[in-house]
């Protein structure tokens, strides 16, 4: 077995030294040498003095932009540390037996991985992004309480050290053991990483003697204080520090999300702090909060998940705010449904406090209580679905630019759809009982927390990199890195969904050999994610020194679509004052919510999206009715000559719970041909081959005819089977022509009447 402390300590040390070397090397190349080619004593003294001044400034700064960068740097360090845990986990799972780490080490790895990523990576990074850009977005000079803002950050580093102290003590103890006897350094050898799971379930967390558990609980409590302080500051800033022109009606969507996130943190983290104190008292003073004779172990689960599920949305909502902010910039269209996005964010904030017990469906809780939580857990999918639909509609007919931020936004939408839908499945009690202890839960959860959340963090780093540094990153490397992390995430977590669906238990270092290949695929995907993270870090660091200076006040060309928001206006003013630049003006501008030119798709026309959809829907229904009538002629002929059995229509009625009557089935068939198939055709017509509408209709009819042929097959053979297939195909072609020709006629007639009315 490998020694986890030595391996992880060495890997982190090598990574830290590499980053330091890159930083020093690039900075050295950027600074000119002295005349003789040698560094003089005065230059060395000046450099030391400058470094001391910089260190003092960063340690004492209260500027919101500096605090934001400190948060981001801290969160990046935590992500690399927690990511190292994840890579070690996946390495162990390359083989079925626990032959790389011991099972206890495996348990310690997923304990520290979960706590480090959830508490010390995601939220600090989002607080950092919020600190940097939120005051700029609302026209504020700084955060409401600058010194409190600094305190909120500086509580986090000692909290992380306390949580991860076990690993440090293990490394130090093993080094000291080389020169000192074990009895002398027993304390260092006793301290070890916590291995009870990141949820810290009682009674194991109460009874395990490892003293590092107490340090971990104190560190988590300190991090909760830091988060609460930061949340109060964000709320006060948004409410009281807005510029006069920034109202609740036009407050940017990212600030809305940070406001709701801060509200959730303000209510959730104090509860976690209280639960942690109770656990500490049980461990050290003999109280019985979570003992059988007291509140019981289930009490810990209630308290933990009452924090834990709002915490999921505390992590998720800032990512959706970034999506709603960044995505429109790269599709040339204003965010569709601003008010609905805001309302959905508020709805998620409220509902997130009413779903915690869906993590406890496998416990002995009252079934009636479980049922109420199942209902709310299913309902909470609705606000998230609203966001998805609005993001997709924002992209509709947009002028898409395939930049790294857009690739990450699109990839985030994809991972969130899959992660969200699988979450709806798990909200159903019987399904959750079946899959609760499997990798299905791991795949669902990570498609969100490793999908949309880090994707949007990286997208934000690319989008605002010119604003923060005044330089460009390597765009080709960024595009490659973005594709790499999207690909790696899908490979890893879709594989986990599959093996979880097959029933493989999670949280175990040892697994059946038949799952080895799938675990190896997931591990390769995990390595790809890790590689992409390192490429991002390299791009960010090296571009700070070698990136091309921004030579325009509008780096992303946002003025052309009237999306030049407040933070870029601040950037423009700074570039004018600092470099005496002239404001960049585009050759042409257009409204960001109107696509250039006349839309080419079936959904084109004048009016809102709702009007367009309803107008196309009734025209498609009319076309579907005509097509179904034409199709019926062929089907009736097939029945008359005996190659189609009308009894098969009765199965349609039986399928929806009605009597197996061919007449009822025929009516349902007519309704489906009038409503369902035309709407499906509208949705997919843009992706079907064919230059003309009727050509795409024939392709569509050919595709759906295969389904009809299978569904209505009743054992025909020989010439009867050939005749059956021929009539099915010809009848569907008649349907396709009737649908598309009627639709095109009605659409052309309406367009003519619209032009005539406008001319009149």
TrEMBL record:
One of its GO terms (cellular component) is membrane. Residues 581-602 are annotated as: Disordered. It is a multi-pass membrane protein. It comes from Haloarcula terrestris. GO terms for molecular function: cytochrome-c oxidase activity; heme binding. InterPro entries: Cyt_c_oxase-like_su1_dom, Cyt_c_oxase-like_su1_sf, Cyt_C_Oxase_1, Cyt_c_Oxase_su1_BS, DUF6789. This is Cbb3-type cytochrome c oxidase subunit I. Pfam families: COX1, DUF6789. The chain crosses the membrane at residues 6-25, 67-84, 115-138, 150-173, 216-240, 260-281, 313-331, 340-359, 371-392, 404-429, 441-465, 477-505, 517-538, 618-643, 663-684, 696-715, 721-746. Residues 52-557 form the Cytochrome oxidase subunit I profile domain. Keywords: Electron transport, Heme, Iron, Membrane, Metal-binding, Respiratory chain, Transmembrane, Transmembrane helix, Transport. Belongs to the heme-copper respiratory oxidase family. GO terms for biological process: aerobic respiration; electron transport coupled proton transport; respiratory electron transport chain. It comes from the Archaea. The keyword Calcium does not apply. It is found in: Membrane. The lineage of its organism: Archaea, Methanobacteriati, Methanobacteriota, Stenosarchaea group, Halobacteria.
């Amino acid at each position: 077995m490998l020694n986890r402390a030595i391996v992880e300590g060495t890997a982190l040390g090598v990574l830290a030294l590499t980053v330091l070397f890159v930083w020093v090397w690039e900075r050295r190349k950027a600074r000119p040498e002295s005349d003789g080619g040698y560094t003089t004593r005065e230059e060395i003294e000046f450099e030391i003095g400058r470094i001391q001044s910089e260190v003092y400034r960063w340690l004492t700064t209260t500027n919101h932009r500096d605090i934001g960068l400190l948060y981001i740097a801290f969160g990046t360090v935590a992500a690399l540390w927690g990511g190292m845990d994840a890579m070690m986990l996946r390495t162990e799972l390359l083989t079925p037996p626990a032959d790389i780490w011991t099972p206890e080490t495996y348990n310690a790895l997923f304990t520290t991985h979960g706590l480090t990523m959830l508490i010390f990576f995601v939220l600090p990074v989002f607080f950092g992004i919020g600190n940097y850009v939120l005051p700029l977005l609302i026209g504020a000079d700084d955060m409401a309480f600058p010194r409190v803002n600094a305190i909120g950050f500086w509580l986090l580093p000692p909290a992380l050290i306390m949580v991860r102290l076990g690993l440090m003590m293990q490394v130090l103890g093993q080094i000291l053991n080389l020169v000192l006897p074990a009895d002398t350094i027993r304390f260092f050898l006793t301290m070890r990483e916590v291995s009870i799971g990141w949820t810290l379930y009682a009674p194991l967390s109460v009874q395990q003697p490892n003293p590092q558990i107490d340090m971990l609980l104190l560190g988590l409590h300190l991090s909760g204080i830091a988060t609460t302080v930061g949340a109060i500051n964000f709320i006060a800033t948004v409410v009281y520090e807005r510029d006069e022109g920034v109202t609740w009606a036009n407050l940017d969507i990212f600030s809305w999300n940070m406001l709701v996130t801060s509200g959730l943190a303000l209510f959730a983290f104090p509860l976690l702090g209280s639960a942690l104190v109770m656990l500490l008292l049980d461990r050290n003073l003999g109280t019985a909060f979570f003992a059988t004779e007291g509140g019981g172990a289930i009490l810990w689960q209630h308290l933990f998940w009452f924090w834990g599920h709002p915490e999921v949305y505390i992590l998720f909502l800032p990512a959706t705010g970034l999506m709603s902010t960044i995505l429109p910039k790269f599709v040339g269209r204003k965010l569709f449904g601003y008010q609905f996005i805001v309302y959905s964010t508020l709805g998620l904030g409220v509902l997130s406090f009413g779903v915690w017990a869906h993590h406890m469906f496998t416990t002995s809780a009252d079934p009636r209580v479980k049922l109420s939580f199942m209902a709310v857990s299913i309902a909470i999918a609705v606000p998230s679905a609203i966001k998805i639909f609005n993001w997709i509609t924002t992209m509709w007919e947009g002028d898409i630019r395939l930049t790294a931020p857009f690739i990450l936004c699109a990839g985030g939408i994809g991972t969130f759809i899959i992660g969200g839908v699988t979450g709806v499945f798990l909200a159903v009690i019987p399904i959750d009982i079946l899959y609760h202890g499997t990798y299905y839960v791991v795949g669902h959860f990570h498609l969100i927390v490793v999908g949309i959340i880090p994707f949007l963090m990286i997208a934000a780093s690319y989008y605002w990199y010119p604003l923060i540094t005044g330089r460009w990153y390597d765009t080709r490397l960024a595009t490659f890195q973005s594709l790499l992390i999207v690909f790696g995430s899908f490979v890893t977590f879709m594989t986990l969904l599959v093996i979880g669906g097959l029933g493989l238990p999670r949280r175990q270092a040892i697994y059946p050999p038949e799952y080895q290949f799938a675990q190896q695929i997931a591990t390769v995907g995990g390595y790809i994610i890790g590689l992409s993270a390192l490429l991002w870090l390299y791009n960010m660091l090296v571009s700070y020194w070698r990136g091309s200076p921004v030579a325009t006040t509008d780096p992303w060309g946002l003025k052309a679509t009237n999306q030049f928001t407040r933070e870029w206006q601040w950037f423009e003013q700074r570039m004018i004052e600092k470099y005496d630049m002239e404001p960049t003006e585009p050759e042409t501008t257009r409204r960001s919510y109107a696509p250039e030119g006349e839309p080419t798709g079936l959904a084109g026309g004048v009016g809102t999206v709702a009007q367009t959809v309803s107008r196309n829907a009734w025209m498609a229904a009319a076309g579907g009715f005509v097509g179904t009538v034409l199709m019926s002629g062929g089907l009736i002929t097939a029945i008359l000559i005996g190659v189609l059995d009308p009894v098969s229509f009765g199965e349609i009625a039986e399928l929806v719970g009605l009597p197996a009557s061919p007449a009822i089935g025929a009516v349902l068939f007519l309704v489906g041909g009038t409503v369902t198939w035309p709407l499906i055709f509208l949705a997919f017509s843009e992706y079907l081959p064919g230059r003309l509408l009727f050509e795409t209709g024939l392709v569509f009819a050919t595709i759906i005819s295969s389904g009809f042929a299978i569904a209505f097959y009743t054992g025909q053979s020989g010439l009867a089977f050939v005749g059956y297939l021929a009539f099915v195909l010809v009848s569907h072609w008649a349907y396709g022509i009737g649908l598309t020709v009627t639709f095109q006629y009605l659409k052309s007639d309406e367009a003519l009447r619209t032009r005539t009315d406008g001319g009149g």
